[in-house]
Design goal:
Belongs to the DprA/Smf family. Helices cover 46% and strands 12% of the residues. The chain is of the alpha/beta class. The two termini are 39 Å apart.
Length: 403
């Protein structure tokens, strides 16, 4: 697949009420296994066709349990009446940068189709091209050491510059550093989240999620409005593994959720990489266990690139091509919904004055304006949406001069 072949925002299919209703009904049908759903879709061609079949035909094609699940009346989704949820989902998808992708869409991530149970429906924000890019996942401990955070950011930046999208889960610690490093690189990052695509968890990552939605992609299989639930995150991990050609574990304790991602990646035939550390460090124990089980020990980003078949010349060419890609705009409604309060104009003007003619970080702007975190982020968002401020790599912001 060439860059020209990659799906764009314009290439994403537009679902009408009946189509979305059919996909959601099947996606949330209790007792309908993913493999049975794929069998039915393959036999009849689409969700509307599946729903029009008789019990006997469905049972003959799959089994009686699947037929009962398909024909059962739809229930509420996250406490919202079924048809009301569809209207809300269509409204969400009408916002710039928002997409509802189904198994029938060309923009659906092709890597996930190699999984035994790909989600029938995904919610995506941002750059659809990243969902088809060659990717490496970087995951690790939420309680990472400073060295681990630095390593995750450095590896992600180098891999992104070489042309690989970096996939992670927006968690605290290693995940967040990997996303930031990839945003600093040329290709970008994909965040697979365990909540609805209209929510941000943890709340401390509102600004990071905003940057990813603008310059990368956010992906969720969960319905809009789904809050953070512990059971969702292991399932989220299988998508992280499925999207990636390999998974790098930077730091992990023996009971880390990152080891689940590594196991799932191994079961899918993906490469597993692990960084070694001190034998006395608790956060090295999980990585050492993976290495003993056959994970590839890596000490530099170049070792990962070699496993992906990148020569230095190829990596340089890929980085140049990635840098030419255009960034997608963030959805204004999503940003305002997640950052809640709209700042007063004097806050925005104060931030604009504090920026001056040189880029500045959040820490610098907070010191210059005396605004708290929420007010500062809200003011920056207002300025970005009005085109007066641009977010740069590394968490820096710059004023945009008007002609």
């Amino acid at each position: 697949m060439t860059t020209a072949d990659l799906p764009t925002e314009e290439a994403a299919s537009t679902l009408d009420f009946d189509e979305l209703r059919a996909w959601l009904r099947l996606a949330h049908a209790k007792g309908l296994r993913p493999l049975a759903l794929r069998t039915l879709l393959g036999a009849f061609g689409g969700p509307l066709e599946v729903l029009s079949e008789s019990f006997a035909t469905l049972a003959e094609t799959a089994d009686a349990r699947a037929a009962e699940a398909v024909l059962a009346p739809p229930g509420d989704i996250e406490g919202v009446p079924f048809d009301h949820y569809i209207e809300a989902a269509l409204a969400w998808a009408s916002e710039p940068g928002n997409h509802v992708l189904t198994l029938a869409d060309a923009a659906y991530p092709q890597a996930l189709l190699t999984m035994p149970d790909p989600p029938p429906l995904l919610y995506a924000k941002g750059r659809l091209d990243l969902l088809q890019a060659r990717a490496v996942a970087i995951v690790g401990s939420r309680h990472a050491t400073p060295q681990g955070l630095e390593d995750a950011r450095r590896f992600a930046r180098v891999l992104s510059d070489a042309g690989l999208a970096v996939v992670s889960g927006l968690a605290l610690g290693i995940d967040a550093s990997a996303h930031r490093g990839a945003l600093e690189g040329a290709t970008g990052t994909v965040s697979v989240i365990g909540t609805g695509a209209d929510l941000v968890y943890p709340a401390a990552h509102h600004t990071l999620a905003h940057e990813i939605a603008r310059d990368g992609a956010i992906l969720s299989e969960w319905p809009l409005g789904t809050p953070a639930r512990s059971a969702n995150f292991p399932q989220r991990n299988r998508l992280i593994a499925g999207l990636s050609g390999g998974v790098l574990i930077v730091e992990a304790a023996m009971r880390s959720g990152s080891l689940i991602t590594a196991r799932l990646a191994n079961e899918m035939g993906r490469d597993v990489f692990a960084m070694p550390g001190s034998v006395h460090a608790p956060l090295s124990q999980g990585c050492h266990r993976l290495i003993k089980q056959g994970a590839k020990l890596v000490e530099t980003p170049e070792e990962v690139l070699e496993e992906f078949g990148f020569s230095p010349a190829k990596a340089s060419a890929a980085a140049s091509a990635a840098k030419r890609r255009k960034l997608r705009p963030i959805s204004a409604s999503w940003a305002s919904a997640n950052l809640h309060a709209v700042p007063a104009s004097d806050d925005a003007e104060r931030v604009l004055g504090a920026l001056g003619h040189a880029p500045a970080t959040l820490e610098i702007l907070a010191a210059r304006t005396d605004l708290n975190g929420a007010a500062l982020q809200g003011a920056l968002l207002q300025l970005e949406l009005s085109g007066r401020v641009a977010a740069l790599g590394g968490g820096r912001y710059a004023a945009v001069e008007r002609s």
